[in-house]
Amino acid sequence: MAREVTQEAFAAAWADGALVVDVREADEYAAGHVPGALLMPLRSVPTRCGELPAGQAVFVICARGNRSRTATDWMNSFGLDARSVAGGTGAWARAGRPVVAGAHEDAA
């Protein structure tokens, strides 16, 4: 079962430089994402988990929290310390937190 964190806990971790992985599709990401988030669409997560550092918390975000829970389960099965962000990018933006638009080169 995916470990989930609140928006408040995620905001504190993000402010401290946490690793954030956005599992939405590229067009959703380009429309607005958490600054610094790495784009890793959900379908690519099983083959890309090896790109993420072991021993470091990974905060996984999507639009509302559904895809991030699935991705978190996969990441945890690979031995990563992954945590799903409750409410996703939508809740982040509604809280008035920073969102940036535009494409981002992912690690693929």
UniProtKB/TrEMBL annotation:
<dbReference type="InterPro" id="IPR036873">
    <property type="entry name" value="Rhodanese-like_dom_sf"/>
</dbReference>
<dbReference type="Pfam" id="PF00581">
    <property type="entry name" value="Rhodanese"/>
</dbReference>
<dbReference type="InterPro" id="IPR050229">
    <property type="entry name" value="GlpE_sulfurtransferase"/>
</dbReference>
<feature type="domain" description="Rhodanese">
    <location>
        <begin position="16"/>
        <end position="101"/>
    </location>
</feature>
<protein>
    <submittedName>
        <fullName>Rhodanese-like domain-containing protein</fullName>
    </submittedName>
</protein>
<dbReference type="InterPro" id="IPR001763">
    <property type="entry name" value="Rhodanese-like_dom"/>
</dbReference>
